[in-house]
């Protein structure tokens, strides 16, 4: 039986505020019972009005009032300057003080990242945070990171992402020894730019608690070739959004194909069950809960537009991470990495980048 | 009535050699009649054996024998050293001498690029070639470039891609004044790294024969927000292959959903027509014929695994480009760009890259 865990919730974050965040917590409470308690940060009146609808949840919650909150379009720099005392800030602060084991926010990504870094600071040995996406594949879920915390990453940062991604996959998807690939334009050693080739050489040279597979290509994501795919935040963000766009396009085309004529409409009716299951499985944006990895504390970002069910799934990710040995595993691997990088830089691959 | 055009064909390139390249030419010949003639480079006996099957094609062809060809796994550096006199080399050489208006090859991308650059050289004012993909979207076809000729691109090269992509879209998809976007992690001016922000500032500052839209995100590709999407070859290659992988995953899941139970199988039967049309429309790798833009001459790359129908579509792209004012348009815009960049570098956007 796991120990009781407290989560801090930015109840005001997201497009819908407490109506979604409190209802999401209520759904999670059905699953966890008294094992998980909640600190709800935000406007007391609004939160209490929502709590009144969920009798089971009420005794599991403590409300921390603030009338300050971060707008969904607030710039990171402004959020950092003016954010102190906001529901987002206070939610992160509860993790720092140890009152909560993890925090969840559906607030805007830039502000969440800026405030979380300011309040919690980077974990020892980690240079930059990364946002990780759980990507549905033919074989299960692949963790893809970074999908937007950074616009550029050097070789060592990519290796740190590999370590954090593996610990995340192990903690949340229970893989014994996650396989890790670096996203590239080909699988041969000489392919790609200096950053990916440097990370490739470093991962080859270091013994870590992960199974380094080598380079993977874009087609390998949906195949589920590896458990963890490492990339810089620019490429990862574009790959994820390209896939989300295609998934939406696909859903629209499918709808159009099924309403093209009476025969196909009948066909759609007959196939509705299997198709619905498929659709849910396909959207890379479907699995909610993108942790910000690399901080001194667990912070999970929910989609801003999440509904209660989707918000509950972000809560579940936070619970899984808080209950795992996630942080210790990262720490152990970072120490091994530092031992290698401080000794000697690995030799660069030959300079033949032409495909 | 267009003038007669001669295409040079690397008849040995691709996984299937003359059995596909000659059959593809035969399909194209049905459409173009005597308006398009072919120079077929490769093993005379093998080519003649295939030509014997296509009576209509035979009088439109001249066979140029060589028993040298580039293997599909040959490294670019090796292909450059040893490629002289090969079917691929000779096909490019025919464009250089002016015997052919364009060439088509299904040979390996790296070797084709290396040899084409060596034989044809870069067009005036263009620093690097780009491979362009015709990407099916909700609104038509968006030209995405670069999808793999380069691993890194600076701001000026991205602007050159914009110019080449717009000329390509105009020539092949007949858009009057193509809209162009730069792929980024957000749409605001301060988003992204120096290269995309520099290109953004340059395109804002220059008056070109194109409609500069601004930054677009990954989700905008499938939406068809713009006619041309510009990105570096690393990101473009990964976005394209991610989408190809996802499209294949969709197709498999769809098949699985339709065979899940007898009812859904009946459903599939009833909807077959509309679904087949949809499937063909969705695969970003489905439209064959990726030109190598930026050279002194038109070179179109076909998929190595193309069948005759798909090879014919690569031939059609080559014909459209050869018949258009594509080259003159690029030249005109490059001159305008050079006028701006030689005057003064545009001011960089403010240094606030955090999302």
Q: How would you characterize the overall build of this protein?
A:
Two copies of one chain form a homodimer. Chain A has 355 residues and is an alpha/beta fold. Chain A folds into two domains: 1-120, 3-Layer(aba) Sandwich (Isopropylmalate Dehydrogenase), CATH 3.40.718.10; 128-289 and 325-355, Isopropylmalate Dehydrogenase (3-Layer(aba) Sandwich). Chain A has twelve helices and eleven strands. In chain A, a hairpin with a 5-residue loop joins strand 10 and strand 11 (299-301). In chain A, helix 1 crosses helix 11 and helix 6 runs antiparallel to helix 12 (326-343). The model of chain A is unreliable at 345-355 (pLDDT under 50). The interface between A and B is large, with 73 and 73 residues.
Brief characterization of the structure:
The structure is a homodimer of 355-residue chains. With 355 residues, chain A is α/β, with parallel strands linked by helices.
Q: What distinguishing features does this structure have?
A:
homodimer; 355 residues; alpha/beta; Isopropylmalate Dehydrogenase; 12 helices; transferase (chains A, B); FA_synthesis (chains A, B); lipid metabolism (chains A, B)
């Amino acid at each position: 039986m796991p120990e009781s865990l407290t989560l801090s919730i930015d109840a005001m974050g997201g497009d819908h505020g407490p109506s979604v965040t409190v209802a999401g917590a209520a759904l999670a409470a059905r699953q966890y019972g008294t094992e998980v308690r909640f600190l709800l940060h935000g406007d007391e009146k609004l939160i209490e009005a929502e709590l009144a609808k969920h009798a089971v949840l009420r005794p599991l919650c403590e409300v921390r009032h603030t009338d300050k909150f971060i707008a969904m379009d607030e710039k990171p720099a402004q959020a950092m300057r003016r954010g102190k005392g906001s529901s987002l800030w206070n939610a992160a602060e509860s993790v720092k003080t140890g009152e909560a084991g993890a925090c969840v926010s559906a607030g805007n990504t830039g502000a969440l990242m800026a405030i979380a870094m300011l309040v919690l600071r980077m974990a020892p040995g980690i240079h930059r945070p990364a946002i990780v996406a759980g990507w549905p594949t033919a074989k299960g879920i692949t963790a893809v990171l970074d999908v937007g915390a950074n616009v550029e990453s050097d070789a060592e940062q990519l290796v740190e992402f590999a370590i954090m991604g593996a610990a995340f996959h192990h903690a949340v998807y229970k893989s014994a020894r996650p396989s890790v690939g670096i996203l590239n334009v080909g699988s041969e050693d000489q392919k790609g730019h200096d950053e990916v080739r440097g990370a490739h050489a470093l991962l080859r040279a270091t013994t870590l608690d992960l199974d380094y597979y080598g380079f993977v290509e874009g087609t390998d994501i949906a195949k589920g070739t590896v458990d963890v795919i490492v990339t810089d935040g620019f490429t990862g963000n574009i790959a994820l959004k390209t896939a989300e766009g295609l998934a939406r396009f696909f859903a629209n085309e499918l709808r159009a194909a099924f309403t093209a004529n009476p025969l196909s409409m009948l066909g759609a009716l007959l196939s509705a069950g299997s198709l619905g299951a498929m659709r849910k499985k396909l959207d890379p944006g479907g699995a909610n809960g993108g942790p910000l990895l690399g901080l001194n504390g667990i912070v999970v970002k929910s989609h801003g537009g999440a509904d209660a069910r989707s918000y509950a799934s972000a809560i579940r990710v936070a619970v899984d991470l808080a209950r795992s040995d996630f942080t210790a595993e990262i720490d152990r691997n970072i120490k091994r990495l530092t031992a290698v990088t401080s000794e000697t830089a690995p030799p660069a691959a030959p300079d033949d980048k032409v495909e």
